[in-house]
Design brief:
Largest sheet: none
Transmembrane segments: 28-52, 73-90, 110-132, 144-170, 190-215, 227-248, 260-283
Organism: Oryza glaberrima
Distance between the termini: 94 Å
Keywords: Membrane, Transmembrane, Transmembrane helix
Number of strands: 0
Protein name: G-protein coupled receptors family 1 profile domain-containing protein
Shape: elongated
Structural class: mainly alpha
Order of helices and strands: HHHHHHHHHHHH
Strand content: under 5%
CATH class: Mainly Alpha
């Protein structure tokens, strides 16, 4: 069976160069990926562990809001944030050396945009948008959370079509499918950059609008500040990521600049993932526990006062 243009380009690039060595930018990417994955695992553990507190009677259950509805959406956010960071490892040289042998060591470079930006990032952004709209009553959970995996279908289908359709069926220029530079380091294919632009153009205005709505109905300055911080730390990194990854595929001197540009792209999306996990998962649980303890305090004081009066009698 005839291969697609993208796969043919990757196999040809693997024949022309040996597997690259790890550089400083690669170790920085691996370290950042570990940090984001660890934060996602911590957020998952927090949501699952504190579900027992939500089952307690009284107002504490309502304030924690860790029931099946919001808990499921927050777990999805942690899962896709972790997947987005873990997918970054696919493009690192040590991964290609461990998984495939020459001349196929460039093929994982094609899997990276498929997993990271065809599955993980669309679902991550869709979950952030869902949680924001649910906080203002614009979405009903948990039913709306079931639609999150379908958010990646258009982008995933486009990536799969590029990788699967034979060159005779889709004879696009090979320059659009370059997944590696002259040193066999993973670059970002032009077709993937175009799909990433479409992803950012779709979700950036939606997220800005949702953050603005949350800030408009926030009950205090702290919640309003968090809505603005979420807009700044999740929406603003999207164009930075697009520019950095696009540069990694067209830069004239890829030996030095391609890994750095790719690291900047992942740094932007890593900041977005960490901010979303902190603001939408960890801080609400912390606030709920803190407020829950405060609300139980007057009850305890009243009970102590009643006991004291009975002793005086």
């Amino acid at each position: 069976m005839q291969a697609s243009v993208a796969v043919s380009e990757a196999l040809e690039a693997g024949k022309l160069s040996a597997a690259p060595r790890d550089g400083a930018a690669d170790f920085a990417v691996a370290w950042l990926a570990v940090v984001v994955v660890s934060l996602a695992v911590a957020a998952t553990c927090v949501v699952v562990s504190f579900d027992a507190h939500a089952r307690q009677p009284g107002r504490l259950r309502r304030m924690l809001d860790l029931g099946p509805s919001v808990r499921g959406a927050r777990l999805l956010l942690a899962i896709f944030a972790g997947l987005l960071a873990a997918a970054e490892v696919i493009r690192l040289p040590f991964f290609s050396r461990a998984v495939v042998s020459p001349p196929r060591h460039v093929v994982p470079c094609l899997a990276y945009p498929l997993v990271a930006h065809g599955v993980a990032e669309p679902c991550f952004l869709a979950t952030v948008l869902l949680l924001l709209r649910a906080s203002t009553g614009g979405a009903r959970l948990p039913a709306a959370a079931l639609a999150v995996p379908f958010a990646c279908l258009p982008f995933l289908s486009a990536h799969v079509a590029v990788l699967v359709l034979p060159a005779a069926v889709a004879p696009y220029p090979g320059q659009l499918a370059h997944a590696a530079d002259v040193d066999a380091r993973c670059a970002y294919p032009a077709y993937a950059a175009a799909l990433l632009v479409a992803l950012a153009a779709l979700y950036a205005p939606l997220l800005l609008s949702a953050c603005w709505t949350v800030a408009a109905v926030a009950i205090n300055r702290r919640m309003r500040a968090r809505a603005y911080a979420l807009a700044a730390l999740v929406v603003v990194p999207l164009p930075v990521q697009v520019v950095a990854l696009a540069l990694s595929s067209v830069w004239e001197t890829p030996r030095r600049t391609s890994p750095v540009a790719a690291f900047l792209g992942f740094l932007a999306v890593g900041i977005a993932a960490a901010a979303a996990l902190a603001i939408l998962v960890l801080l609400p649980v912390y606030d709920a526990l803190f407020l829950g303890d405060d609300e139980q305090l007057p009850v305890a004081v009243a009970a102590a006062g009643k006991e004291a009066r009975e002793l005086d009698r």
